[in-house]
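Researcher: Re-running this chain for the archive, since the previous output was lost when a drive failed. Same request as before.
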Amino acid sequence: MVELNLSILLAGVVAGATPVVLAALGETITEKAGIINLSLDGTILLGAMAAFALSYETGSLLAGFMGGAAVGAVVAGIVAVFSIYLGQNQVAVGFVLTLMTRDLAYFLGNAYARLQGPQVPPQPIPLLSKIPFLGEVFFSHNIPVYFSLLFIAFCWWYIYRTPLGLQLRAVGEHPRAVYARGIDPRKLQVLYAVCGGCFVGLAGAVFSLSAKPGWGRPQGAEGTGWIALALVIFGGWHPVKAALGAYLFAFLQVMGIYFQGWFPSVPAQVFQVAPFPLMIFTLVLMHLAQKESVLSWAEEKAWMKSIVHMFSGAAPAALGKPYRSE
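Model: Regenerated structure tokens:
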């Protein structure tokens, strides 16, 4: 029987959710600007491969993380340019790119499969890591984990508390109004698509240099991009809610390990697959929470109103509709 230690469980959730948090927040930024980037899954794989290969060849973890971010920026930039300036369908371009980058990752990374390379060491924060319970859960990790926690707060502050964040939201809601203020919506959309792509590429780098060190086939990062896309919807295009969804997903994955020990007669594949339908079920609940009939019913019940509000969220009005100058 596997013993459940709450602090170890939650520490595993915080660490395991890091790449999903980065990918979900990166896509939140991109979609807030009105661009849909469906290339996340392949981008994460290619970013993971590039990060490991660069770190292996140079011996520098920084080079690896920069390489992963650059991969994400380039792929997202292609999606943005093709959709905004060339008038191509964003969904189609992103879907083709996720297939191409996935195959490219495995083809180019074949020489690095199963090699031992550098990985990010744990760096407990002095004093804070000694705090009972909280120290083990939040302050006994490595730099990528700390960065992801800070990035959640930064995204919320930037999007909702700064003039630049107001521009970001405006270009995703009403790009013509942004143009009327003397700002080129297309350049702004490309900028935020590239910025969001950087963090998707970083998510891949975290996989191969921290969360699941090394490169191989299967890498273990497959499907993360699709989960991140779902979490953006789950979070109602709000960075904090999307991050909470990432931690929920990581919690379900970690609990699957415990369930395997508690119920050895149940096939392990059941617990490995379980987080995915549970996330789909949560998305269905969120969809229902946005229906007018449900909102009207919840208005009469204070406790239900707060729950429905937590699940509610609307996509940017111009999402998937790039600005066309007349």
